Amino acid sequence: MKRNGLEVTVVVGNEPLSEYTIAEEGDSTVICWIPSEEGKEFSIKTVNDTPSTIITCETDVDGRSMDRTICRAKASTLVRGTYSSASAVRPFTFTRIGVSDDDDLLDTDNANIEAIGTIRVSVRRVEELEKRAFVAGEYDTTEIGLLHERRKKAGVHCVSLGKEIALQKKTNRGSVGVAYLDTPEKPYCVFIFHYRSKDILQAQGIIPTIVARPSGVASSKGASGRPARASPVQHIASRAVKRQREGSLPKDSDVKEEAEESDMEDADALQAELEAIQIRLSKAKAKASHKRVKREPSPILLATSGDVIDLTLD
């Protein structure tokens, strides 16, 4: 997503995740939905394309503060997880939430339930002061753990922290002192990613579901690329399906009259189609009897079915 000369993306395997239903909220917040996959590690990439603005990116995951990083103008940063030292990180990982019917969990599970499934990057402008030795931030690395089944989070993902891994020397982090130009209550801009499994996003209509057409079923478009005209069989079938769907309606006089009118429409449409076919067939036979012509695809389709912040050193 982009805002104010900045771009923030969630990256898996060096590729940004697709973003769906991007929307603005207020003057400074942009929101979208992304698909998560259980067991996949991810990073959060920020690109600062402004000519001179220095920013900090404060990252909250599932309501937990996880990272705070500086990003200079015409530069980018990549947050892979929570940094336990200047050369080690615990990577962000999408994980399935565990549920239980243990009522004790109602009192002990995570209080910030509504934030689960959300990655929030809050951006503030800063003036850079002096570089310092790395200071590990005080972040909330508590795991989400089991939730009570009444929370209705079965099948939902959360983010856990993987095992600590060593960083390459070129990505060692330092720290820098800054003076903030924006307040926490009114940041420069905010990027919010709501993540769910692809199946859930499809069920919610956020990701379109592509239904494969069974083999042998005619395409809805003709040879010219234009939508094909429905055949009599398709027309009657569609009317029959419509009447089946309306079968649960009360059988009053209005419904009966509409059904009778529909039957007449079906008969008229069928008769018109048959007459048109007979005329075209007669013309084709007449031409064939006089001279041999090159066969062309028929235009008629007859269907059979329907402070101090972290700094990544270059």
Descriptive account of the structure:
Residues 243-256 have a biased composition (Basic and acidic residues). Residues 257-268 have a biased composition (Acidic residues). Residues 5-208 form the DUF7918 domain. Strands 1, 2, 3, 6, 9, 10, 11, 15 and 16 form a nine-stranded antiparallel beta sheet that branches. Strands 4, 5, 7, 8, 13, 17, 18 and 19 form an eight-stranded mixed beta sheet that branches. The chain has a two-stranded parallel sheet with strand order 12-14. The longest helix is centred in the C-terminal third of the chain and has 38 residues, at 253-290. The two termini are 25 Å apart. Helix content is 20%, strand content 37%. α3 (232-245) packs antiparallel against α4. With 314 residues, the protein is of the alpha+beta class. The chain is extended. It contains four helices and 19 strands. It has two domains: 2-203, no CATH class; 232-247 and 255-290.
Q: How much strand content do the residues show?
A: 35-45%
Number of domains: 2
Number of helices: 4
**Sheet of most strands:** 9 strands, antiparallel
Average pLDDT, to the nearest integer? 77
Shape: extended
Radius of gyration: 31 Å
C-alpha termini separation: 25 Å
Please provide the ordered H/E string of secondary-structure elements. EEEEEEEEEEEEHEEEEEEHHHE
- Unreliable stretches, pLDDT < 50, 5 or more residues? 219-262, 293-306
Q: Count the beta strands.
A: 19
The computed structural class is alpha+beta
Helix content: 10-25%
Protein name: DUF7918 domain-containing protein
Pfam families: DUF7918
Biased composition (Basic and acidic residues): 243-256
Region (Disordered): 217-268
